[in-house]
Each structure stands twice: as structure tokens, then as C-alpha cells.
Design a protein that fits this description.
Strand 1 and strand 2 form a beta hairpin. Helix 4 packs antiparallel against helix 14 and helix 13 packs across helix 14. 44% of the residues lie in helices and 9% in strands. The chain contains 16 helices and 6 strands. With 303 residues, the chain is α/β, with parallel strands linked by helices. The structure holds adenosine-3'-5'-diphosphate (A3P). Adenosine-3'-5'-diphosphate (A3P) binds next to helix 4, helix 9 and helix 15.
């Protein structure tokens, strides 16, 4: 589909929709309307699933994983935009555009798939097939700031209001995909029973080579030093910002308006300090301590 016809389809995406609850979790209406289809999704045993709370570094880990799977060849990773290489199973577009679910169904194995679902809403076939899962978590403060900006540039998300209003909704667990706290904790606890590699955005930022090696080991991929170096280079923030197959510039501005805020916005740890007041920061720390108590989960908010 060319960009113009895509533009027309995206114009029919409902703008600034209100969230709809699925099992108590706020979702986009299109996801809620297709819930039975999604819940019945047939995972295959050799599927790899990438799971994150929105804006935790999904696109980054997707590019890292694809580079690993393609032997560190950037040309092969340029075969299609991120969402076509790694379908986002819980995203539904109006017809005639295909949904992430349909793209996944049409894809030959082995597939790599993406989801933002909280752990309790993952289609059961992923557990039944014992699929490998990579989860990336990002500290709540930077995650919230990134989500705030993404709401402003993405017309398909609810109206975020100003920062204070958005943070209220985030803390009240009213934003799309619900509670950040429950999401990161739920997936953390699931790794006790399932093959889940749990990574942190801050760790990847601190030492990408170390974290890429962890992913390679989890996937059973042997890495040579030159390939590792190529992957590190290809997946830096600057490289990805300039990569049309990774920066979402293939989607029309009627959906993602990158002049409002680029998809590849800052790519740092600690940007939250420019948004949170001291009181907001202390409040989030207090909620975080309470919600994550006893889990062993710990987040760094600066490097
Ligand atoms: P910021 O808005 O803080 O810049 P997702 O892919 O889950 O939607 O997450 C997007 C966030 O990850 C954005 O954060 C984006 O800039 C950041 N990101 C994407 N690629 C990155 C990279 N290679 N290095 C660091 N951050 C990256």
C-alpha cells in the first residue's frame, strides 16, 4: 500500500479515542473489539516474543534481535520497517490495512513477535507452547515521560493533557495498557516459571555489548567480535534515529506526527528530571516502593 492510501486509511483511525477496559485493563478500542481473536492467537513453539510496557525500548530490542537473527547484516534488517519484520500482535488497524495479528499469521516460522500486553492477558498459547520471551523494562519516570510525548505525537492514543494531568493518569493506572507497576512486576514474576529473559533499558544503555551478548546467549546464537561490534553500532540511538526502517517514518504523519515529537526522541536515562517536580518524583518513588515491595525488582533512574 502506498503512502497516500495509507494516509487515507489512517485518517479513518479514531482520533484521540477513550480507553476501553479489557479485564479491567485500559486498551485501545480496536484491541478490545478484536479481543477474542487475539486471545485465541495460535503461538508456535519456535516463536520468539518481545514484550514491553509501551515506550520501554521495544523498537531498540527489536532491532537488536533482528540484527542477531540476520547475522549482523544491516542490509537484511533494512528489508522492511520494524512493525512488518516483527508484527505487533495487539495492534489493529482499519481495513484494508492488515493488523499485526494477521501479519503474524501470514509469517513463516520462525517468527519474532511483539506485544505490550500485561502478563495476565497474554494469549495462553504462548505459555502452552513454552515460547521464549524477551522482556525489557524501563524505569517508571523515564517511561512515563516518553509515553507522555508519544501520546502527543500519536493521534491514535487518548488525549494526554498536560504533563501534570498525564502523570496523574499514569499513576492512577488509567493509561493504555494500564499499570506500569503491575506490568513490570507481573512479567518479572512470570520468569520463575517460563523462559523469559528480563532486561533493563538502563543496562542496555550502560553497556550495549554486554546486554546484546545476553540476548545472543538466550537465543543460542554464537557471536563473533566483529558481528557484535556491528550490532552495537547499528543499534545506537543515532543510527536508529537515522534509519527509516527503524524510526517509524514509514507511517504517515496523520498517525505519528514526528514534527510534534520524533519517535526517536531523546534515548537517554534521566530525561525525567526535566519534567518531574520534587513532589512528583517523591510520590512516584513512594508508590514504586509499595507496589514493588518484596519482588526483588530494582530500577535505576540515572546512570
Ligand atoms: P524517549 O522518548 O525517552 O527518547 P518504544 O520503542 O518502546 O516505543 O520506546 C521508545 C523509546 O525508546 C524512546 O524513548 C526512544 O527514543 C527510545 N529508543 C529507541 N531506540 C533507542 C536506542 N537505540 N537507544 C536508546 N533509546 C532508544
Amino acid at each position: 500500500m502506498d503512502l497516500r492510501s495509507k494516509e487515507e486509511v489512517f485518517n479513518s483511525v479514531s482520533k484521540r479515542p477513550k480507553p476501553v477496559l479489557v479485564e479491567g485493563i485500559p486498551m485501545l478500542r480496536a484491541t478490545a473489539e478484536n479481543w477474542d481473536l487475539l486471545w485465541g492467537f495460535a503461538a508456535r513453539p519456535d516463536d520468539l516474543l518481545i514484550s514491553t510496557y509501551p515506550k520501554a525500548g521495544t523498537t531498540w530490542i527489536q532491532e537488536i534481535v533482528d540484527m542477531l537473527q540476520q547475522g549482523g547484516d544491516p542490509q537484511k534488517c533494512a528489508r522492511a520497517p520494524t512493525h512488518k519484520r516483527i508484527p505487533y500482535i495487539d495492534l489493529f488497524f482499519p481495513k484494508p490495512m492488515t493488523s499485526g495479528l494477521e501479519d503474524a499469521e501470514a509469517m513463516p516460522s520462525p517468527r519474532t513477535l511483539k506485544t505490550h500486553l500485561p502478563v495476565q492477558l497474554l494469549p495462553p498459547s504462548f505459555w502452552e507452547q513454552n515460547c521464549k520471551i524477551i522482556y525489557v523494562a524501563r524505569n517508571a519516570k523515564d517511561n512515563a515521560v516518553s509515553f507522555f510525548h508519544f501520546h502527543h505525537m500519536n493521534q491514535g492514543l487518548p488525549e494526554p493533557g498536560n504533563w501534570d494531568q498525564f502523570l496523574e493518569d499514569f499513576l492512577a493506572e488509567k493509561v493504555i495498557r494500564g499499570s506500569w507497576f503491575d506490568h513490570v512486576r507481573g512479567w518479572w514474576e512470570a520468569k520463575e516459571k517460563h523462559p523469559i529473559l528480563y532486561l533493563f533499558y538502563e543496562d542496555i544503555k550502560e553497556d550495549p555489548a554486554r546486554e546484546i551478548q545476553k540476548v545472543a546467549q538466550f537465543l543460542g546464537i554464537e557471536l563473533t567480535e566483529p558481528v557484535l561490534k556491528r550490532i552495537v553500532h547499528h543499534t545506537t540511538f543515532e543510527s536508529m534515529k537515522n534509519n527509516p526502517m527503524a524510526n517509524y517514518s514509514s507511517l504517515p504523519s496523520s498517525l505519528l506526527d514526528q514534527t510534534v515529537s520524533p519517535f526517536m526522541r531523546k534515548g537517554t536515562v534521566g530525561n525525567w528530571k526535566e519534567y518531574f517536580t520534587v513532589a512528583q518524583s517523591e510520590r512516584l518513588d513512594e508508590i514504586c516502593a509499595r507496589k514493588l515491595e518484596g519482588s526483588g525488582l530494582f530500577f535505576r533512574t540515572q546512570l
